[in-house]
Amino acid sequence: MDDLLPLYRTPEGMASAMAAYDSALARLRVPYETLAVPTRFGQTRVLAAGPRGAPTLVMPHGWNGNAAGWWPQINTLAESLRLYAPDTIGQAGRSAPARPSTRGPAYGLWLADVLDALQLARPALVGGSGGAWLILKLAEVAPERIGRAILLSPAGFVPPRLRFLLRAAWIGMLRPDATTPMRYARLASPPPLRIDESEVRLGAPALLSLKPQLPPPVLPNRTLRRLAAPTMLLVGEHEAIFPPRAVLGRARRTLPNLVHAEIVSMAGHNLSYEQPELVNARILDFVMLD
Fold first, then answer.
1. Which end of the chain has fewer surrounding CB within 10 Å, N or C?
2. Share in percent of the chain as helix, strand, coil (round to 5)
């Protein structure tokens, strides 16, 4: 694990983040295995669950998270789908610490390498926030590798709200303490949304210990138009980071095969936690479409 040290402020912070990762894995109620696959950017860890031979779903996670964060989806979807959830390089999982530029093709090439290593020709993919951005970057370099795309609270369509950025910057200027993770959580999930404090505790070590990384940038029209696969987009009505109607508006103007777009009630940026039953049902129905 020492190869991950460059990502963290201190060795103790890294140890705390990895312990939290294991605690999140303990929430999985289904059998799973951990794979280590090669890519040009270093080794990538992948959680795999669900019956072999079932329809396949690849699940890139949100920015600065890890694959264990998909536990509300894995516990349900593994009954019907073969799931592969990779830890993104350079983030809070157990993959290589590489952090290539977000401006070039690197992240799309990394995800294509993961598909190659798993011998997946054209799977369905689901991604939340920065994970959705990763799917768009895959479309930039290899659109033919995407069977279906499910984008949850996607980054890459519009800039973050200025209000969100200012509030996040203010929190970042304060001396970190026990209230810091909840402040960030409330920023992403404003009232009337409820926050699962146990989820905040699981995410706190990485939030406080991981060295900062620039967020995914907005993508040009030419990139968005390369996502030719059937696409579903879900965004919460209380989305605090990206204006939901602006996201849907740009998606409708640029995505060539947007099959379904929906604003989800009583949900903010963290759709997969705030409305897991609805999200799981939408994912399963979309993947299973003929």
1. C
2. 45, 15, 40
* Beta carbons of 17 and 66 less than 8 angstroms apart: no
Looking up tokens 């079932």, which residue turns up?
Answer: 54
Whole-prediction pTM? 0.95
- Partnered with residue 126 across adjacent β-strands are 150
**Closest Cα partner for 88 from 28, 130, 33, 35?**
130
Does 104 have pLDDT greater than 90? yes
- Please report the DSSP string for 114-171 in residue order: HHHHTT-SS-EEEEETHHHHHHHHHHHH-GGG-SEEEEES-SSSSPPPHHHHHHHHHH
CATH superfamily of 2-288: Alpha/Beta hydrolase fold, catalytic domain (3.40.50.1820)
In angstroms, the CA 26 to CA 150 distance is 26
Percent of the chain clearing pLDDT 70 (strictly above): 99
- Calpha distance 133→143 (Å, rounded): 13
pLDDT tens readout for residues 173-185: 767 777 787 887 7
pLDDT at 59: 99
